[in-house]
């Protein structure tokens, strides 16, 4: 499989980067997008890709920087680069309702116009497994939103490789489960320290990946676990806020020997 970072920013497009989203493809795989924020259509074209190539989209959760680009993707497939084949969508509960709301908010009655393509939507709960666009997707509970929303960490398998996606979350059991044994974990790192809402910060990752380095925030989700570690072989940090991106080169040096990197728009990764 090949993973292209379409966007790597936080919700605020810090330092001019696009909203976090990823293109996964390979022999018999996809192309599949993971998340599709408000800037994702432009970012996809910026890396030279046509949205009609997409066979599926998997959503980690339903905040605007992860789902807000759907209105533009749909009307593009209706009136511009006309889509003739289905676009399969997988996401957490409320996905169908939220996508419809986004489309109607942006384009009103166009939401009711006939489309030249089908867009089947499958909603998955934590513990669920679905197959789409040549991959198997396992869903785990993330810690980012209140009910009835149910944000997810995703574990995507194909061709003997496993890539896990944290989505937006604090450190939680679902994140550990999704990452266990994965060839690559694409993990959010929104800020250097807490408080930063229900997100991961660099101090969380330093505590998990760096031997003997404590997390001093006391605000990073569940109670600290004695040396519990992330079981992924490599970690790619993304959803980067300004402070993290500005210090990325230095942060790598804080964890010598760790298999980590920081995402950049357009980066291509082979798991």
What would the principal axes of the Cα set say about the shape? globular
Low-pLDDT sequence parts:
212-226
Named at the architecture level, the CATH assignment is 4-Layer Sandwich
Going by CATH, the homologous superfamily would be Ribonuclease Z/Hydroxyacylglutathione hydrolase-like
The neighbouring-strand order within the major sheet is: 6-5-4-3-2-1-14
What's the CATH topology name?
Metallo-beta-lactamase, Chain A
CA radius of gyration is 18 Å
The class by helix and strand makeup works out as alpha/beta
Number of helices: 8
Mean pLDDT: 93
Largest sheet: 7 strands, mixed
How many strand elements?
A: 14
Helix content: 10-25%
Overall tally of domains: 1
Sketch the topology as an H/E string, one letter per element: EEEHEHHEHEEEEEHEHEHHEE
Assembly state of the chains shown: single chain
Cα end-to-end separation: 7 Å
Overview of this protein structure:
It is a single chain. The chain has 271 residues and is an alpha/beta fold. It contains eight helices and 14 strands. The chain has helices at 40-46, 64-67, 70-79, 95-107, 173-179, 202-209, 242-246, 248-254, and strands at 2-7, 21-26, 29-34, 56-58, 88-91, 121-123, 129-132, 135-141, 152-158, 161-165, 184-188, 235-238, 260-262, 268-269. The strands form two sheets. A seven-stranded mixed sheet has the order 6-5-4-3-2-1-14. Helix 3 (70-79) crosses helix 4 (95-107).
């Amino acid at each position: 499989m090949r993973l292209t970072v379409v966007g790597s920013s936080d919700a605020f497009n810090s330092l001019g980067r696009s909203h976090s989203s990823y293109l996964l493809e390979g022999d018999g795989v996809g192309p599949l997008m993971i998340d599709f924020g408000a800037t994702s259509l432009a970012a996809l074209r910026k890396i030279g890709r046509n949205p009609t190539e997409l066979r599926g989209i998997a959503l980690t959760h339903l905040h605007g920087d992860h789902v807000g680009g759907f209105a533009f993707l749909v009307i593009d497939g209706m009136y511009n680069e006309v889509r003739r084949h289905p676009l399969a969508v997988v996401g957490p509960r409320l996905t169908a309702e939220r996508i419809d709301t986004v489309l109607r908010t942006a384009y009103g009655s166009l939401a009711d116009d006939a489309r030249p393509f089908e867009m089947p939507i499958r909603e998955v709960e934590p513990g669920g497994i679905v197959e789409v666009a040549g991959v198997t997707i396992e869903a785990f509970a993330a810690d980012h939103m209140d009910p009835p929303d149910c944000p997810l960490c995703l574990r995507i398998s194909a061709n003997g490789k496993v890539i896990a996606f944290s989505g937006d979350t604090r450190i939680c059991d679902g994140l550990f489960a999704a990452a266990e044994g994965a060839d690559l974990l694409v993990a959010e790192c929104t800020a250097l320290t807490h408080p930063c809402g229900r997100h991961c910060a660099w101090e969380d990752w330093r505590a998990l990946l760096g031997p003997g380095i404590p997390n001093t925030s006391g605000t990073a989700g569940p109670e600290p676990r004695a040396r519990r570690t992330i079981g992924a072989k490599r970690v790619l940090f993304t959803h980067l806020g300004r402070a993290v991106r500005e210090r990325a080169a230095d942060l790598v040096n804080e964890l010598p020997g760790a298999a980590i990197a920081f995402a950049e728009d357009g980066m291509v990764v082979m798991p």
